[in-house]
Amino acid sequence: MSIERDISSYAPNAGSPAYSGVLSRRVLAFLVDYLIIAILWVPAAVLLFFVGIATLGLAFFLYPVLYFIVAVFYFGFTMGGISQASLGMRSMGLRIVRTDGLRMDFLTAAVHLALFWLFNSVLTPLVLLVGLFTDRKRLLHDFLVGAVIVREEAV
């Protein structure tokens, strides 16, 4: 039994319309998601200010990483939630599917995000080139967590 056959039992086949236009939709979903995270960062920064005052300044060290903390919670709760998609992914009609048949959980979604940041910081926009040469338009971090991004209407 090949690995490809195992994957296809949970995710649509490679020739399926579920992967048509996925890369361009992922880029647009990324832009929408990071706009939402930037908007969520503002109340988080205000909340951290008051927490910092209450802790006599001990919480102020979180300001440099606050954007990343907000992003981890955002992606963890949206991609790891019921819809299995962030708000940007939902607006583009995308959903994440794990190749092992399990639902995406908070931790796996957070690891998916961390790997994306890691590969994007090393490969910058070249990270998208992998998707041009894979049959299911998967990127490196998708392979490592065992996930596939599919169009919602095709599933």
UniProtKB/TrEMBL annotation:
This is RDD family protein. Keywords: Cell membrane, Membrane, Transmembrane, Transmembrane helix. It is found in: Cell membrane. Residues 23-145 form the RDD domain. GO terms for cellular component: plasma membrane. The chain crosses the membrane at residues 34-59, 65-85, 106-133. It is a multi-pass membrane protein. It holds the Pfam family RDD. The keyword Ubl conjugation does not apply. It comes from Martelella lutilitoris. Its main location: membrane. PANTHER family: PROLINE-RICH ANTIGEN HOMOLOG (PTHR36115:SF6), PROLINE-RICH ANTIGEN HOMOLOG-RELATED (PTHR36115). InterPro entries: Pra-immunoreactive, RDD. The keyword Thylakoid does not apply.
